Amino acid sequence: MDERHAGLVAELRALRAEAGLTLRELSLQVHVSDSSLSRYFAGQALPPWEVVATLTDLGGGNHAELRRLWDGAQRERRQARWPATGAPDVTAVVAAERRLAPVVGICALIAASGAVGWALGRR
Questions:
Q1: Distance separating alpha carbons of residues 47 and 88, to the nearest angstrom
Q2: Do residues 32 and 51 touch, judged by C-beta distance below 8 A?
Q3: 112 and 75 in one domain?
Q4: Long-range own/partner contacts, residues 68-76 (CB < 8 A, 24 or more apart)
Q5: Which spans are transmembrane here (predicted)?
Q6: At what angle are helices 3-19 and 63-81 packed, to 10 degrees?
Q7: CB half-sphere exposure, 13, CA atoms < 13 A
Q8: Are 34 and 23 in contact (CB under 8 A)?
Q9: pLDDT one-digit tens code per residue, 31-44
Q10: Domain count of the chain?
Q11: 10: helix, coil or strand?
Q12: How far apart are CA 15 and CA 9, in angstroms?
C-alpha cells in the first residue's frame, strides 16, 4: 500500500469510528457488502469515490481533503499498474498471457463452431 492510500485508509477508519456504526450497519448505509468495506478499511482495495463520499457524510469528514487523498491513491494505483517508462515487466506480461490463454481458447472454439454451423447451413 502506497503512502497516499495509507492516508486514505487512516481517514476512512477515523470516519467509521466517528460514525459509530458496525460494519454491517455501514454496509446498509453505503450499499456495498460488509466484506468490501472490510477490504477498504484494511487497505486491500481502493473504494470507489461514491463509497468514500458516503462514508465522509456519515462520519462528518471533509469532502475536499478526502477527495484529494482518494485522487492521489487512484493515481498511484494506476501508475503501479501501468508504469510510464522503462522496459515492460516480463513477469507481468507472462502472467497476463496466462490469464488470457483460456479466454483466447474459448473465443477460438466459439468462432470455429460458428464457422462450422455456417458451413453446414449453406449445404
A1: 28
A2: yes
A3: no
A4: 69/4, 69/7, 69/8, 69/11, 70/8, 70/46, 72/4, 72/7, 72/8, 73/2, 73/4, 73/5, 73/7, 73/8, 73/46, 74/46, 75/4, 76/2, 76/4, 76/5
A5: 100-120
A6: 140
A7: 11
A8: yes
A9: 999 999 999 999 99
A10: 2
A11: helix
A12: 10
pLDDT of residue 118: 78
d(CA 54, CA 48): 10
Residues 72 and 14 in one domain: yes
Residues 57-74: tens digit of each pLDDT: 999 999 999 999 999 999
What is the percent of the chain where pLDDT is above 90? 55
pTM above 0.70, yes or no: no
pLDDT over 60 at 84, yes or no: no
Given this model, what pLDDT does residue 68 score?
94
User: Per residue in 12-23, pLDDT tens?
Assistant: 999 999 999 999
Q: What's the rounded Cα separation, in Å, for the pair 37 and 46?
A: 10
Residues 77 and 106 in one domain: no
- Domain assignment of residue 109, given as a range: 88-123
